[in-house]
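Q: Got a minute? One more chain.
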Amino acid sequence: MEHAKKKSPLNFIVGLVVVIFTVIGVVSVVDFAADKVRSAANKAKQEQAQVYEDFISPVIMNDPDTFDDITKANFQQLLSIAIWSVIDGGADPEKYEYTDDGMLMPQKEVEDEFISLFGSEIAVSHSTVDGGDGVTFKYSKKKQCYIIPITGIMPIYLPDVTEINEKDNSVVLTVGYLASSDWVQDSDGNMVPPEPGKYMKITLGKNGDGSFFVKAIQNAD
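A: Always. Here it is, folded:
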């Protein structure tokens, strides 16, 4: 579902920093940060939106299928997201082992990241999984790890949180999906965002410690 682009300059993304990092020549991925124009009146709100954008960015980067309940989600997609989130979270390359096929990521790290992103309602089972864009994360039961190949990938979408509705034990975000391939540069060298390809509702549950986890991804309409 497409919506008209908001005219408020306070919601206008003025820059995009794309960081491509390489793990000892083994794996390169894209990280990003989108800085928005802030006024004194809405600075706190925009900073809050940025916190949510940072959290959900690995979730929406490969555009997973919608689900009303996390237990009904495509588990393979969630597993892939957890692996990408470990990589994109600044994992120290020096602490991992390597083979000719790539970097060995312990399954425990993937499990911890999975729970951090999606809560503990789903038991994590390990298997080889599609990482998107032709990337495959092979699982080694013998070594209890995932083999991260020599490759790189651009996220399909970047998030733009446009609305935040907080409830007792959850937060419902309206998120514009910005195609990462459609950003352009203006005459001043600033990165200009595209119109959102679509809007989605992402519901986050709240943990007792104040952190949150993804409960649902639904069409905005």
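A: Helices lie at 43-60, 75-88, 107-118.
Q: Perfect, thanks.
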